[in-house]
Write a structure and sequence with these properties.
The structure holds three protein chains of three kinds. Chain A has 18 helices and 15 strands. Chain A is an alpha/beta fold. In chain A, the strands form five sheets. Chain A has a five-stranded mixed sheet with strand order 2-1-3-14-6. In chain A, strands 12-7-13 form a three-stranded antiparallel sheet. Chain A has a three-stranded mixed sheet with strand order 9-10-15, covered by helices on one side. In chain A, helix 2 runs antiparallel to helix 14, helix 14 runs parallel beside helix 15 and helix 17 runs antiparallel to helix 18. Chain A starts with a helix and ends with a strand. Chain B is mainly α. In chain B, 73% of the residues lie in helices and 3% in strands. Chain B has 14 helices and two strands. In chain B, strand 1 and strand 2 form a beta hairpin. In chain B, helix 5 packs antiparallel against helix 6 and helix 13 crosses helix 14. The longest helix of chain B has 34 residues. Chain B is flat. In chain C, helix 3 packs across helix 13. The longest helix of chain C has 33 residues. Classes of the chains: A alpha/beta, B mainly alpha, C mainly alpha. The interface between B and C is large, with 108 and 104 residues.
């Protein structure tokens, strides 16, 4: 009996090892060191675990905030990139297009990548059939709201856009000195995310061509609707991520923030005074019969073209973003929505649970649900910083009263973007339609 | 390596002319500086000139002649970037020079009443990094931290924001005045006390007031230093970067808010090295033409053996 | 002489303007973020100064001290070498009538005011080719060249009377000896002023390290403090203020101690 059990155990171990080997190949090269630039700090624990399994790969992590300028510079200079780079999904195409990354399908088949991350998510890290990296966290939109303010003014959590604006009106009437929600001045991905949430998109990439169509019916409707709300005075516009914005979240002068689900972690750290007051919900739907969601932010880890040992880097980025051990590490440290990998399901029960900051709500479940609703995908344009800047300036003009109708921003934005694409030397641009 | 050794090796008969010998010695003393000067200043400018003739995508570059300059002169963003320097040049610099002149005279008046303390305090802002100036002032003007906010609220302006694009010019004016007025006043004051006392004493006997003496008699002596200061500040104005760079973290600013920001953003945010090189050359050329007067004066002084740039 | 009351009043008013940001920065170091947002002009209650200092000093295993050391290295060594090289160059201009003297002078002075914004990008490419990017040398090497110092050094050397050189020469001293033994002592007061000028200039230089340094461990203070963020990459205002305070503290101490050597020099300082 004992022997049989031992054999069974051995068989079991061999079997699981075989499965694991499929996803996480052995590193056959010489001992090596790979460098990584990332602005989150939760990778440290994963790195520790990784080095236990792959003692021949040493990972050195470097953080100096959002590093796109450094990346762009190193790229133009032709050297200076680290081996592994954290990049937001919306900036992925820009760097893929400029040749910042190298394909890693050699070390793991595209099939396996798809199994590990799902086709849609992998699309953020791949182009023209080449996989350049692995996706980590989700940027699925979620609605963060102040439960205390909702209770105080008798608001209900809106499920649809119609309910959303009704609650906003009610709130504004009762508390004109407070803000229900302030949409960002600029932040292209947030606005594109809004359109995405409504089931639309403004740009894409297919068969070697860039498609730009900002003035499509879905986008126009989204902008017109938001414009009406701004004109009505129930919603505000503000520059995000600066001291004033930060303050309004801490002090509780804003009732709602709709943003990527990684924001949960930001709140916890930056608005400690508001502990227990925030809750999370699925963003209000445009059409509750066909639920959709969009994303803002979320990042992948890519292997750069300057990397001398792509094998080690490929093994690392894949292990980092899909191995349950790593997923658990990433969660335990910061509770970011590391939920893109399909193997997240293996750890969700372990990592999800009541969250004291959110008044005991199990936010992981809500965010996971929000992430599941991201059911379409597209490729962002390769000039995102310019797309972002021109939108910021246009919305600012609207705020300053130089643009009268909010929806008039769209065609002007589109014109700027097309002009910039041309200026940057892209001849493969198709306008006025999407693939 | 020393001159002595070189001289020893020379047969006395063939001893070279004094000028040749002096030249060798001079260049030996100059060598370390010249070597670094050539690699760190001249070479980069030459490389800039070369780069500006190339087109670029990512790390790939190809020759395109003067195309970058054609694009640049047709680029509205390039011209727009001079709005802030022009504002500083026409408003801030004259205002500051005027203020600094007054302050310099006041320093003189306060000579026996602790004037040194004021000189010290006013000069302080000039010594701290532009980035810290930017951080502190941008926080002071940000609506959530500004100590002016409660005052404005009390006066009934609770709806108006402080840090807005239209207000930004005024804010920049306040910051630059703060940072450079004390320094400017100090420089003017140094020239002021160098003016021979005899002139003002005579006028004083004739019954002229302090301010009459200041403006009628002393002003002409200060013309040169004011002109030099004006030029240096003009050069500073076209290079302004740190303060708007920090303010840009709190308010929406275009990437071409100032020429220096446009160069930085073109090169390092958008990776357009060759275009940025062309921009940099134009800026260098502008700076150079601004400084011609100073160069002219400095050369004259050196050749006549005059020792100080300051009168 | 009677005390000029009106003048004193105006001077005091201006002093408030010039002192105010320093005061605000100083009280800012005593506040946490919530207290900063209360906009008070008094120090934070409870006083969070020690908290902030601890947070800064222990930030990422004492990264702040590395920045401080880097700043001292860049500014100290940079200024020392820049001034020594300028001093030698100035000596050449003072003592010798050499070929190309006027041309060289024009060339050096002509490039004195080249904006850093024009040279930094090509320097970046040069350092890339020399494999010096992201090394301390990439900040140091350009700092060694301070063109304006050469001009001032010529002026300082011109103030040394001709007789001193002549006397030394008659005694049989060679040129190197004259430079070190006879010349240098005369230049010390001027050199201290110049050293402070260049030191402060490098200490405050933000743009060059911004471009050529990638590793936080090699950043100088002015750059380092702008990278202080929370674990998700967003700024932490009280810590930025506290570290700003410690960035200018060495300068203020230097300024107070060596007050008499701080003489204004006409020189673009932005």
């Amino acid at each position: 009996m004992r022997r049989i059990l031992q054999i069974a155990l051995i068989l079991l171990l061999v079997g699981s090892a075989a499965v694991a080997a499929d996803y996480y190949p052995k590193y056959k090269g010489k001992p090596t060191t790979i460098t990584m630039w990332a602005w989150t700090s939760n990778e440290n624990y994963s790195i520790e675990e990784f080095q236990k399994i792959y003692p021949n790969i040493k990972v050195v992590w470097e953080d100096f905030g959002v590093h796109y300028e450094k990346v762009q510079t190193a790229l133009s200079a032709g050297s200076g990139l680290p081996d592994v780079l954290m990049v937001e999904y919306s900036y992925g195409p820009q760097f893929m297009d400029l040749g910042a990354f190298q394909p890693i399908n050699r070390w793991l088949s595209e099939e396996n990548f798809k199994k590990l991350y799902g086709e849609a998510a992998l699309g953020w890290c791949a182009m023209d059939g080449k996989v350049y990296g692995t996706p980590q966290d989700s940027g699925a939109m979620a609605m963060f709201y102040r439960k205390d303010l909702f209770d105080q003014y008798g608001l209900t959590v809106p499920k649809t856009r119609k309910e959303f604006i009704e609650q906003a009106r009610k709130f504004k009437k009762a508390a004109p000195h407070l803000k229900f929600f302030a949409a960002p001045i600029g932040n292209a991905m947030w606005w594109i995310g809004q359109i995405w949430e409504a089931g639309g998109k403004v740009c894409d990439y297919a068969d070697g061509n860039w498609y730009i169509h900002f003035t499509n019916p879905v986008a126009v409707e989204v902008f017109e609707t938001w414009g009406q709300w701004f004109d009505e005075g129930v919603l505000d516009l503000e520059m995000w991520w600066n001291a004033d914005w930060y303050n309004s979240l801490n002090e509780g002068t804003t009732a709602v923030v709709e943003i990527g689900c990684w924001f949960a972690e930001w709140l916890r750290y930056n608005a400690p005074d508001a502990e227990g007051k925030w809750r999370v919900a699925i963003p209000p739907q445009w059409d509750s019969a066909k639920p959709h969601n969009g994303m803002i932010g979320g990042s992948g880890f890519y292997v750069t073209s300057h990397c001398k040992n792509p094998e080690a880097a490929a093994i690392f980025v894949n292990w980092l973003n899909s191995h349950p051990t790593s997923l658990k590490c990433l969660h335990n440290y910061s509770n970011l929505p590391i939920m893109v990998s399909t193997r997240y399901e293996e750890v969700i029960d372990e990592v999800a649970g009541p969250d004291a900051y959110f008044g005991g709500q199990n936010i992981c479940e809500t965010l996971w649900e929000a992430h599941q609703l991201v059911n379409t995908t597209f490729v962002a344009l390769p000039i995102m910083s310019n797309v972002d800047e021109s939108l910021s300036l246009l919305i600012q003009e609207y705020v300053d009263g130089k643009i009268k109708r909010f929806a008039d921003i769209l065609p002007r934005w589109e014109r700027e973007v097309i002009k910039t694409m041309k200026e940057f030397g892209y001849s493969n641009v198709i306008t006025g339609k999407l693939p | 390596m020393t001159e002595e050794m070189i001289m020893d090796k020379m047969p006395t008969k063939k001893r070279m002319s004094k000028k040749t010998l002096d030249s060798i010695k001079a260049y030996l003393f100059l060598a370390p500086f010249l070597l670094l000067f050539a690699t760190m200043v001249i070479y980069p400018i030459a490389l800039s000139a070369k780069l500006s003739l190339y087109g670029q995508r990512g790390a790939r570059m190809w020759y395109i002649g003067l195309q970058n300059f054609v694009t640049l002169f047709q680029d509205p963003k390039f011209w727009e970037s001079f709005r802030i320097p022009l504002f500083l040049l026409t408003v801030q610099v004259p205002l500051m020079l005027f203020l600094a002149l007054l302050i310099a005279f006041l320093y003189e008046k306060m000579e026996k009443h602790g004037g040194g303390i004021y000189r010290f305090i006013y000069y302080l802002p000039y010594t701290i990094p532009g980035i810290v100036t930017g951080i502190v002032w941008s926080y002071i003007f940000s609506d959530s931290m500004s100590p002016f906010r409660p005052v404005l609220d009390l006066l009934g302006f609770s709806g108006t924001k402080i840090l807005t694009r239209p207000n930004l010019q005024l804010i920049l004016l306040l910051i630059t005045l703060w940072a450079f007025t004390g320094y400017t006043a100090f420089v003017i004051y140094s020239s002021l006390i160098a003016i021979p006392k005899a002139y003002s004493e005579q006028a004083q006997l004739d019954g002229a007031t302090f301010w009459q003496i200041a403006f009628k008699i002393k002003m002409p002596f200060l013309r040169d230093v004011c002109l030099t200061l004006f030029i240096f500040n003009a050069i500073g104005a076209i290079q302004v970067f740190n303060e708007p760079w920090m303010l840009g973290k709190l308010i929406v600013l275009p990437s071409n808010y100032t020429p220096a920001m446009y160069i930085y953003n073109s090169a390092f945010a958008q990776g357009r090295f060759t275009y940025a090189a062309a921009l940099g050359l134009i800026l260098a050329l502008l700076t150079f033409s601004f400084s011609l007067y100073i160069l002219h004066r400095a050369t004259k002084q050196m050749l006549t053996g005059e020792s100080q740039l300051l009168p | 002489m009677r005390k000029p009351i009106l003048t004193t009043f105006i001077m005091l008013l201006l002093a408030v303007y010039f002192i105010f940001p320093f005061y605000w920065l100083a009280i800012g170091t005593t506040k946490n973020v919530s207290q900063l947002f209360q906009k008070s002009l008094l120090p934070g209650v409870p006083n969070n100064f020690l908290e902030n200092v601890r947070a800064i000093f222990t930030y990422q295993n004492g990264l702040f001290f590395q920045w401080l050391a880097n700043s001292f290295l860049y500014a100290g060594l940079g200024a020392l070498i820049a001034i020594f090289l300028a001093c030698m160059a100035g000596y050449a201009f003072r003592r010798y009538d050499f070929y190309g003297k006027k041309l060289l002078f024009l060339l050096i002075l002509g490039f004195a005011m080249v904006p850093v914004f024009a040279t930094t990008l090509p320097l970046f490419m040069l350092f890339r080719d020399l494999k010096l990017l992201n090394t301390r040398l990439a900040v140091l090497l350009p700092s060694f060249v301070h063109v304006f110092s050469v001009y001032l050094m010529i002026a300082y050397w011109n103030q040394v009377p001709e007789e001193i050189f002549n006397a030394a020469q008659i005694d049989g001293a060679n040129d190197l000896l004259i430079f070190f033994k006879i010349g240098l002592p005369n230049l010390i007061p001027g050199s201290i002023t110049l050293f402070l000028l260049v030191f402060v200039g490098i200490w405050n230089n933000f743009f060059l390290p911004l471009v050529v340094i990638n590793s936080r461990a090699r950043m100088p203070l002015v750059l380092g403090i702008t990278t202080i963020t929370d674990p998700q990459g967003f700024p932490v205002y009280n810590l930025t203020l506290t570290s700003s305070f410690f960035t200018i503290l060495p300068l203020l101490i230097l300024f107070v101690l060596l007050q008499k050597h701080f003489k204004p020099q006409l020189y673009t300082g932005r």
